[in-house]
Amino acid sequence: MTYLAEPLCRCGNEPWIHRGMLRTTATSGRFRCPETLHCLHGTTVEDGRIADHWRNVPGECPWIGTKVTDRPRCACGRGPWIKLRHLRLFTRKHLTGPVVSLSCPGLCPGPRVAVHDHHICDHPRDNDTRCPWSGTRIAPVGIAPPLFVSGPRSD
Ligand SMILES: [Zn+2]
Ligand SMILES: [Zn+2]
Ligand SMILES: [Zn+2]
Fold it and tell me: What is the pLDDT of residue 29?
């Protein structure tokens, strides 16, 4: 039996999601941004990251630059994780405590999804599909960039 060393895994260094988590748009090759409310034209994935994309309001999209892998598990077998900075629509316990529910970044319709111990709880995407955001860890780091404020990038 040959032993193939796994590449050194960097899954904990920066947030990442996988392609299956992004909803596709009617236009082929495009995805809906998790912040679809302000990113009406969707986005693309370039070089394994969410590309810069059009917004309907001034202010940076927190998803631009986020790493997107092809596989749902990293080399060491872990699942995806994001930062609080990615999210705008969520509820915290006692206003400043851990996140207890959120509007699913996978754009699941219906009520907010529960979050338990910093992980998005299992929930259905539709009648027979588990939402691929189920189990995603939310690191309690950062706050979303402000809306209606022009960011440092001027181009
Ligand atoms: Zn966006
Ligand atoms: Zn890993
Ligand atoms: Zn969902």
Answer: 83
